[in-house]
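Working notes for the structural subgroup meeting. M.R. asked for a predicted model of this chain before we commit to crystallization trials. I am recording the input and output together here so anyone reviewing the notebook later can reproduce the run.

Input as submitted:
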Amino acid sequence: QVQLVESGGGLVQAGGSLRLACEASGRTFRTYAMGWFRQAPGKEREFVAAITRSGGTTYYADSVKGRFTISREDAKNTVYLQMNSLKPEDTAVYYCAASPVVARTTHSWGSWGQGTQVAVSS
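Returned structure, recorded in token form:
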């Protein structure tokens, strides 16, 4: 498994932007598809975005499509989530995850970070 550490969360006003980063340990980063999930209080963890091992294909939840962008920088073992036009409903703990293949279900991802809090005020 790979160890993941997220950063970049914080408090932002509606309409603002944040960029989350997730750094992975080890030399096998290129062998993993990477994903971002989020969990709001009282709700289940949900899929946000994912990127394939090659970086050639990305996937997004309908709720963030057009506002969020996932990217990866293999030289730095890091995956990013650029979040623009943030809304109060984007408030959640955001988790980074790694898996050999992309999936939209949480149970398919074997490695998880500790999460980073994003709060969007109205």
